[in-house]
Design goal:
13-stranded mixed beta sheet; 8 helices; 32% helix
């Protein structure tokens, strides 16, 4: 059953959702709001749930194709803010699933909405990603222990001196190919900054400056056994990877609102931050969870080489395979969560 404190926290929110809509929405929209508020209350009575957040249709298709996900027969889904929140079970564990959409704003918004509206006690974020680490391969799955927002930049003029407490600099002036008389271009440099983390465990209006967001250690320990699991090697009978994919726990990941498909920048990310994967949502989901005091784990399947390939990007060829391997890992992780798991120790 849903915890009493969560229900009490939800009552003002449901009241606001309902009452604030009455004078500004047409009758049909008001009726929909009232119906959603009632359904949310009923769904939360059956909680708590493990929250699942993915990104694009390819990942959703792989997840929903699994016979392990069993929709709730009474309330299989609730539509809120244009997104469909699906309710069901995986290996007997209650789950709440949503596809957030590409980018960090979508990821943070969907995660915060799930935490605020529903009785979820932790978030499993999953999807595909670009491979930054030459010791990893397409089809592999990574479960990082740290994630950074590698898109938080100050773009400096060429005469701006480097220094201070920022994490790294990318000196674009030196990237002249071919060299033209030894002169630097005027693009200057990118200075990588830190996030401002507001947290329930911190002081009000006093954010902590952080570069890395840590995923939940206890969940990483549970995931460690997944390194032994069997992953798919073939898209179909004719398209296969040269080697059997593997799952690795404990690497680092980078997130930005950038699809990385450039070999030089790929090398820069690995050499500077030692990250093994690049995506567009993970740090936003992780930071939202940490800010609210919720456990979080990130599971990403490697779909391409982020620009290191010869020819076209492999995401169209192997994206579905990476998504399928990611879904397999998610299902196995949910299976390993104890039925009596004590979520409240994090909230």
């Amino acid at each position: 059953m849903a915890s009493l404190d969560h229900i009490l926290r939800l009552l003002p929110l449901l009241f606001i959702i309902t009452i604030s809509s009455l004078d500004v929405l047409p009758a049909s929209a008001t009726s929909s709001k009232l119906k959603n508020a009632t359904t949310v209350r009923k769904v939360n009575r059956n909680g708590p749930y493990v929250g699942l957040v993915t990104v694009i249709e390819t990942e959703e298709d792989a997840f929903l194709a699994s016979v392990e996900f069993r929709p709730d027969p009474t309330h299989p889904f609730i539509d809120l803010s244009g997104r469909r929140f699906r309710i069901g079970k995986i290996h007997g564990k209650k789950v709440m699933y949503v596809r957030c959409g590409r980018g960090m704003v979508n990821a943070a918004a969907a995660t915060q909405q799930m935490i605020d509206v529903f009785d979820v006690k932790g978030i499993v974020h999953f999807g595909i990603a670009g491979n930054i680490n030459n010791s990893m391969s397409i089809g592999d799955v990574t479960i990082p222990n740290q994630i950074t927002n590698a898109g938080l930049w100050d773009w400096l003029n060429p005469d701006k001196a480097e220094g201070g407490d920022d994490e790294a600099y990318l000196d674009i002036r030196n990237y002249n190919v071919p060299q033209r008389g030894g002169n630097n271009n005027m693009l200057g440099s990118l200075r990588y900054g830190r996030e401002q983390l507001y947290s329930v465990t911190g002081h009000i209006n006093s954010p902590q400056n952080v570069f890395w967001i840590n995923t939940t250690q206890e969940w990483l320990h549970l995931a460690a056994d997944l390194e032994k699991m069997d992953l798919l090697q073939c898209v179909n009978s004719t398209v296969c990877l040269p080697e059997k994919p593997k799952l690795v726990v404990g690497l680092k990941a980078a997130t930005a609102n950038i699809f990385v498909d450039n070999a030089v920048y790929r090398d820069f990310l690995y050499d500077t931050f030692e990250v093994s994967s690049s995506d567009m949502e993970s740090s936003a989901v992780a930071m939202t969870c940490v800010s609210n005091g919720y456990p979080v784990i990130v599971i990403r399947g490697l779909s391409d080489l982020a620009g290191a390939q010869t020819g076209t990007n492999a995401i169209r060829k192997f994206g579905s395979l990476a998504a399928a391997n990611t879904a397999k890992a998610v299902l196995e992780f949910i299976k390993k969560l104890p039925s009596n798991y004590n979520f409240t120790s994090y909230v």
